[in-house]
Design a protein that fits this description.
This protein is an alpha/beta fold. The chain contains 21 helices and 30 strands. Strands 18, 19, 20, 21, 22, 23, 24, 29 and 30 form a 9-stranded mixed sheet that branches. α2 packs across α12, α5 runs parallel beside α6 and α5 packs across α16. The longest helix has 21 residues.
Length: about 725
C-alpha cells in the first residue's frame, strides 16, 4: 500500500493509568481531559499536575498529547478560568487542544498562538466547505463527523490541506455529535457540557402516527447503536486521506485502552511496513468483540448511510477478557561510561536526537581490589521505573579503579534526569503580553420595536401565517419560498431561506443562483444557517452578511458572538441551554430569541422509520414513548433542501423533537429585560390553523400586554439552565 501522508494512531485516556497503557500499547498520540472543559465530565480525568506530567512523558517518548477543551463555555467560565487553566500546559508544550466552542477557539488563537487547534467532532463538520472555513480560521485539524462516508472524507481531503481525524473504533452516538440536546432537555445534563446521561440507550416503544398501537417491546432500544470496529477498513480509511485514526473510549478501563490500541497498532504496522498481506484474523476480530460488545459491532458509516444492521436495539453490554497486565513503553538509549583514575566519572547518554553528558566526583585509584566491569555494568543497567531501557552501554575504564556504588547511582540518576529534561524541554514555550479578550459590540439597537418572525416547516403553515399583519418576516424552505416570492408577499414581509439542519454534498444545482437574483432585487433578505457546511458555501459566494445563525450554531459567550461578528453575519440565535441569569450576562444586541417551538433533541443519520418499518422516502414521522409515557415525534427528512423533488436522495436525516414545545408565554416581562428586539416562533408539526392561533397568543402577550393563557409548554432551560 502506497501511503503518502503520516498516519497517527490516537488513543483515549480517562486516567493517568490509561494514558500510560495507551503509550505502552503503541499510540502515537493520546487525548485526555483535564479538570475543566472536557466532554467527559464523569471520567476520572487528569489533575493539572498529571497533565503536566503526561505532557513531559509524551515528549520523552516522542509522542503527542492533546487536551479536550470541547465543551461550550459560559461567559464567566471563559473569562475567569480558561486562561489560567491553559497557560501552564501551553508553557510545558501541550501539542493541541480539541475545541467545540468558537469563543474558545478565538480566545486560544489570540492568547496561545503556537497551540494547534483541532476542530472537535462536536462542531459537526460534514464536508469540504466547513473544513476550508476552519482552515481559514487557523485550525490545523478537523475531527470529522462520524456519519461521513469514505467518499465524503476523500472529498474533504482533496479540498483542504489540513489534517483529518476520524473515529475508527468505539461507541457511536445516535445523534450527530454536538447536535444532541436530549440529555440536556430531559434531565439537565448537557452533552455540550460533557455530562450526557445517554438517554439514547434507554428503551422506547415505537408506533406510526396513524395508530395508537405500539409495535415494539418495552425493552426495545430503537436509538442504541452497536459499537464501531473498522480493522478491515483501515486501508480504505487511510486512502481517503485520514491522517489521525481515533479510538473512542475515555470512559473505558485502562485494559480496554491497551487492548484496542494494541490491536490497531498491530494492523497499522502491517499496512505501514508492507510486511505481510493485510488480512484480519477471525481470532483478532473476536478478541475485540469479547473485550466489549453491545449487540455486536458494525463498521460505522464509512460504507453505509444508516440501517438496522448498525443498531444494537438493546443496551446489554458484554465485556470480558481484558488484559490484567498493562503494557509500558520504554525508549532505547545508548550510553558510554568513562571511568579513569583522577578524572570525574562521566556518562554520555543519547536517545533519538537528544544527547547529554553527566559527571560525578573523581574516580579513585584502587589500592587493593579494583572494581570489575561486570559489577559496574550491573549497577548502571538498573533503569527501573524510568522511561528508558539500554540499547547499548559501552564502558571505558582504567584497570585499577574504584568508584563508590553511591556515586554510580547518582551518576546514572542525574544522567537520566538530564536526558528526560532535554527531551521534553525543547517543546516548552513562553507566553508574552496580557490576556486578550474579544468583546462583542455593545451598540444600542437603533430600532426599539419588537420584531416577530416565524419559521415554518411546511408550505401550508407559511401560507397561513404570512397573512398575519404583525409578523415581520418568515423563515421557509425553498419550496415555500418560491411560492411566497411569486405571490408578492415579499413586498410586505421579510423572507429568509431556511437551510438544512445537516448539509452533506453540494447544494442543488441553481439554488444559490436563484437566491442571488432574489437578494439583488430585494425579494430575499437572507438565510437561516444551521451548520458550518452551508455557512462555508455561502461565505465562498460572499453572502455571509445575509446569514442568520440558528440556535444549533452555538454562541454561548461574548467571545463566540465576537467571532461571528467579525464574519459580518446578520444575526445569531440565543442558545437553548442558557438560563435567564446567564442570558442577562450575555451580549444580546445582535441576537434573535426563540419564544416558541418544538426543540430538536437529536439530529441523526439513522432513521427510526427505516429501522423499524422500512424506508419509503416519503418524509413520514414516527412516535417514540419513553418509560414515563412521554411521546416524542421523529420526523424523516428525506429531502433536506426541500426543492420539491421526490427522487430518492443520497443523504437524509431524522429530527427527534421534544415531547412538549418550548413556550415562553408567561415569561414575557423577563424576556423583555434581556435587551432583545428580534423574536421567532418555530412551527414544526402544527396544523396551519393551530399555528395561527399560537402565533396570535404570543403577539397578544408580547405586543399588546394581554394576560397570557395557561398552556402546556416547557420552559426549556430558561429557569434551570444546563449543568
Amino acid at each position: 500500500m502506497n501511503i503518502t501522508h503520516e498516519i497517527e494512531l490516537l488513543a483515549p485516556a480517562g486516567s493517568y493509568e490509561a494514558f500510560e497503557a495507551a503509550l505502552g500499547a503503541g499510540a502515537d498520540a493520546v487525548y485526555v481531559g483535564g479538570p475543566d472543559f472536557g466532554a467527559r465530565a464523569y471520567a476520572r480525568n487528569f489533575t493539572q499536575e498529571e497533565l503536566i506530567r503526561a505532557i513531559h512523558t509524551s515528549h520523552i517518548h516522542g509522542k503527542k498529547l492533546y487536551l479536550t477543551v470541547n465543551t461550550l463555555l459560559k461567559n464567566r467560565e471563559l473569562k475567569e478560568r480558561l486562561y489560567d487553566s491553559l497557560r501552564p500546559l501551553y508553557e510545558e508544550g501541550l501539542d493541541a487542544v480539541i475545541v467545540q466552542d468558537f469563543g474558545v477557539f478565538q480566545f486560544i488563537r489570540n492568547n496561545f498562538p503556537e497551540l494547534h487547534l483541532h476542530a472537535s467532532t462536536q462542531m459537526t463538520v460534514t464536508g469540504p466547505e466547513g473544513m476550508k472555513f476552519l482552515e481559514n480560521q487557523g485550525a490545523t485539524r478537523v475531527v470529522a463527523a462520524r456519519e461521513l462516508s469514505l467518499e465524503e472524507l476523500s472529498a474533504m481531503h482533496q479540498a483542504s490541506s489540513i489534517e483529518i481525524e476520524a473515529f475508527i473504533h468505539g461507541a457511536l452516538c445516535y445523534s450527530f455529535s454536538g447536535q444532541c440536546l436530549m440529555s440536556s432537555m430531559l434531565g439537565g445534563r448537557s452533552g455540550n457540557r460533557g455530562r450526557c446521561a445517554q438517554p439514547c440507550r434507554l428503551p422506547y416503544q415505537v408506533r406510526t402516527p396513524d395508530t395508537r398501537h405500539y409495535k415494539t417491546q418495552k425493552d426495545f432500544c430503537p436509538l442504541s447503536l452497536k459499537d464501531m470496529c473498522t480493522l478491515d477498513l483501515l486501508p480504505e480509511i487511510i486512502n481517503a486521506g485520514v491522517t489521525s485514526l481515533k479510538i473512542e473510549g475515555r470512559m473505558k478501563q485502562p485494559g480496554y485502552t491497551a487492548a484496542v490500541t494494541g490491536m490497531y497498532r498491530k494492523y497499522l504496522d502491517i499496512l505501514l511496513n508492507n510486511s505481510e498481506p493485510y488480512h484480519i484474523t477471525d481470532q483478532d476480530r473476536q478478541y475485540l468483540l469479547d473485550i466489549f460488545s453491545r449487540g455486536g459491532s458494525c463498521q460505522g458509516y464509512y460504507r453505509q448511510s444508516n440501517g438496522p444492521s448498525m443498531m444494537a436495539f438493546t443496551n446489554d453490554k458484554k465485556s470480558n477478557g481484558l488484559p490484567e497486565a498493562l503494557p509500558s513503553r520504554k525508549e532505547p538509549v545508548s550510553g558510554t561510561l568513562i571511568l579513569y583514575p583522577g578524572a570525574p566519572a562521566m556518562l554520555d547518554i543519547s536517545c533519538r536526537d537528544a544527547h547529554i553528558t553527566a559527571t560525578a566526583e573523581e574516580v579513585q585509584f584502587a589500592k587493593d581490589q579494583p572494581m570489575a566491569e561486570t559489577r559496574i555494568r550491573q549497577q548502571m543497567e538498573k533503569l527501573g521505573n524510568t522511561p528508558f531501557i539500554w540499547n547499548s552501554l559501552n564502558i571505558e575504564m582504567g584497570e585499577q579503579i574504584f568508584v563508590p556504588i553511591r556515586v554510580l547511582n547518582e551518576l546514572r540518576r542525574n544522567a537520566i534526569q538530564l536526558l528526560e529534561e532535554r527531551l521534553y524541554s525543547r517543546q516548552k514555550r513562553t507566553v508574552s503580553g496580557q490576556i486578550r479578550y474579544s468583546t462583542a459590540k455593545n451598540a444600542v439597537p437603533s430600532e426599539q420595536t419588537l420584531r416577530f418572525r416565524v419559521s415554518c416547516e411546511t408550505r401550508e403553515q407559511a401560507a397561513a401565517l404570512c397573512k398575519n399583519p404583525e409578523i415581520y418576516g418568515l423563515y421557509v424552505y425553498y419550496d415555500a419560498l418560491k411560492e411566497l416570492i411569486n405571490s408578492d408577499i415579499y413586498k410586505e414581509k421579510e423572507l429568509y431561506l431556511s437551510l438544512p439542519y445537516i448539509t452533506r454534498g453540494s447544494a442543488p444545482k441553481g439554488l444559490f443562483d436563484s437566491c442571488r437574483l432574489w437578494l439583488s432585487d430585494g425579494r430575499l433578505k437572507g438565510f437561516l444557517v444551521r451548520n458550518l457546511e452551508t455557512y462555508g458555501m455561502l461565505r465562498e459566494l460572499g453572502l455571509q452578511k445575509y446569514c442568520i445563525l440558528d440556535a444549533s450554531m452555538y454562541t454561548w459567550n461574548d467571545e463566540a458572538i465576537s467571532f461571528w461578528e467579525n464574519e459580518n453575519i446578520l444575526r445569531n440565535t440565543l442558545p437553548y441551554e442558557l438560563n435567564e441569569k446567564e442570558l442577562l450576562h450575555r451580549n444580546n444586541i445582535g441576537s434573535e430569541m426563540i419564544l416558541y417551538g418544538s426543540i430538536p433533541l437529536m439530529l441523526s443519520a439513522q432513521c427510526v422509520r427505516k429501522n423499524t418499518q422500512g424506508c419509503d422516502c416519503n418524509e413520514q414521522s414516527m412516535v417514540l414513548k419513553d418509560r414515563y409515557d412521554k411521546e416524542f415525534c421523529s420526523i424523516c427528512v428525506c429531502h433536506p433542501w426541500k426543492t420539491g423533488t421526490t427522487a430518492k436522495e443520497k443523504h437524509c436525516y431524522n429530527i427527534l423533537y421534544n415531547s412538549l414545545p418550548l413556550g415562553l408565554l408567561q415569561e414575557a416581562d423577563k424576556v423583555r429585560n434581556l435587551g432583545i428586539r428580534n423574536f421567532r416562533l418555530n412551527f414544526t408539526t402544527e396544523a396551519p390553523a393551530q399555528a395561527a392561533k399560537i402565533l396570535q397568543e404570543f403577539l397578544d402577550v408580547y405586543l399588546h400586554h394581554k394576560i397570557p393563557a395557561e398552556r402546556n409548554y416547557t420552559k426549556g432551560h430558561f429557569k434551570r439552565g444546563a449543568e
